[in-house]
Specification:
CATH topology of chain B: ABC transporter involved in vitamin B12 uptake, BtuC
CATH class of the largest domain in chain A: Alpha Beta
Pfam family, one (chain A): BCA_ABC_TP_C
Number of strands of chain A: 10
Number of helices of chain A: 10
Oligomer: heterodimer
Keywords (chain A): ATP-binding, Nucleotide-binding, Transport
InterPro entries (chain A): AAA+_ATPase, ABC_AA/LPS_Transport, ABC_transporter-like_ATP-bd, ABC_transporter-like_CS, BCA_ABC_TP_C, P-loop_NTPase
Structural class of chain A: alpha/beta
Number of domains of chain A: 2
Number of helices of chain B: 15
CATH topology of the largest domain in chain A: Rossmann fold
Protein name (chain A): ABC transporter ATP-binding protein
Strand order of the largest sheet of chain B: 1-4
Family (chain A): Belongs to the ABC transporter superfamily.
Order of helices and strands of chain A: HEEEHEEHEHHHEHEHEEHH
Distance between the termini of chain A: 19 Å
CATH superfamily of the largest domain in chain A: P-loop containing nucleotide triphosphate hydrolases
Chain lengths: 268, 346
Amino acid sequence: MVSAAPVAAAPATAPVATSVGGAPILATEGLGKRFGHFRALSDVTVAFPEGGITAIIGPNGAGKSTFFNLISGAFPPSEGRVLFRGRDITGSPPHHFARMGIAKSFQITNVFPHLTVRENVRVAAQARRVRFAVFRNRSAYPELTERAEALLGEVGLGARMDRLARELAHGEQRALEIAVALAAEPSLLLLDEPTAGMSPEETREMMDLVQRLAETRTLILVEHKMKLVMGLCRRLVVLHQGQLLAEGSPDDIRAHPEVRRVYLGKTA
Amino acid sequence: MSARAQVPAVAEESGLPATLPAARPGSGRTGRGLAWCGRHRVALTLAFLLVFPWITPYQALAVNILVLGLYALGFNLLFGYTGLLSFGHAAFLGGGAYGCGIAIVQFGLHPALALVAGTLLATGIAAVMGVLAIRTRGIYFAMTTLALSMCVYYAFYRAEAFTGGENGLRGINVPSLALPGLRLDLLDPTVKYYAVLAVVGIAVWLFSRLLSSPFGAALEAIRENEGRAQACGFDVRRMKLVAFVISGALCGLAGALQAIHLSIVPIETMHYATSGQAVMMALLGGMGTFFGPFVGAATFALLQDGLATLTTHWQLFVGAIFIAFVLFLPLGIWGEVLARLRRAGW
């Protein structure tokens, strides 16, 4: 098995990385996931510092999406723990994540297609404040509508608010999804391949947006294209065959011999 | 921006059905006319129902349609607005009917209290069925609700002492209704219609409030995208359960009214064919539209009434017509009307 060597290498890099940003906002301890007999992820211990962008990269099948789904609460891990601000949140129901301040955008566009763009974000903002009110009118909460409109302005959809979400172009839908995620007022925003399927033009706009968002909150993003994130993020986490291969600054990662070998396909 | 303009312009507000995958791409904006209708949907619905008896062949049929319309309306909360297809709503219609009938026959309760009793019984049945069924999704949800409703059917079938078993519950005679300062002669079909309409009107108003509420917005979000709604922080399972119970309560009220209207509760009220009838009426009228259930109920009742006088195989023809609708008018009658008006820029 080729994967045995990288595991041994992983813990050595961990202490260096965690000392960067003080107390981590999110940390995993020995995180693993099995689907039947298939081990999608095993023993990933990693800490994400508060602020800035951390990118999770790795080749296809590295376990990036599994890892993303575990830290965003889409399904519970088979082993290990997830800590948010030092609190164990392993196995919390999915809807609690947004209430704790962890929001996510999915890999596949995931909006409310037959609602207007404005209502998409308004209902998401509502989730944090009012859920079971049966007899008040939605319009009795103008601050939610205002907040939705402000967020849509922020992601560049200010002129499209009255359209149905499904009528938007692909790139616009991705931007809308980010606005929906932001409506939860997250302190931690998780993005799963935010530029998947986008044109170069749309990709550039999305990356600008990602950079702007990271000014005021912590971002963790899964990305397939390594080049795209190298210039943006403060730290990188590299997964390979379901295991942690390396973590560190973009310079560390570029210089890491194992990463160069398995991910960039270069011989060290 | 005026306060009115701030009301979120939801696709549903004008009643455009949103869930049918076959729905044709319409233009995005709702015109002024439809937006106005959406804001006054309760008043417009009630205005129509007020004059309705004059355009039906006879008034007992109008009462039937009113009751079936409320049944389809309650069903539509789950089907059209939350995106859950239940095949067990007969248990709620029947539960309401039996609850009301037993309260009158066995306990001699005032009809108004009997309506409450019937609705409560249906609500209770819905709560139990909901807790069990809401864990499943899609076709499994439909099958679970179907199976559970047949359990309820069998229980009522066997409890002969209370329900009359196979013969149905007979003797629910409510010739007149004594209210404070008012005595209504229910043997007069016109009086009966407006007495039933008063109750249905309140239900329609409550239903509209519910749809416009933040909770209604959350239900739409769940229908549109359950995973996303959950990620937004909505407790999807609990919200679906609440919707299921409210839907059951509305159908229970319809059942209770039906018991008083027909003065008998046939055991078939609880049979799964009655559940299928709710699905048919919702689809005929237009799922996820506010007024569609009444259009669907009227279509169904008029077809049944007209065809039953011509042939004993009326169900065959109703079925064929239903299939034609699903194939060629997937938005339903009212849904199609709205879509056309919308395309015309109303």
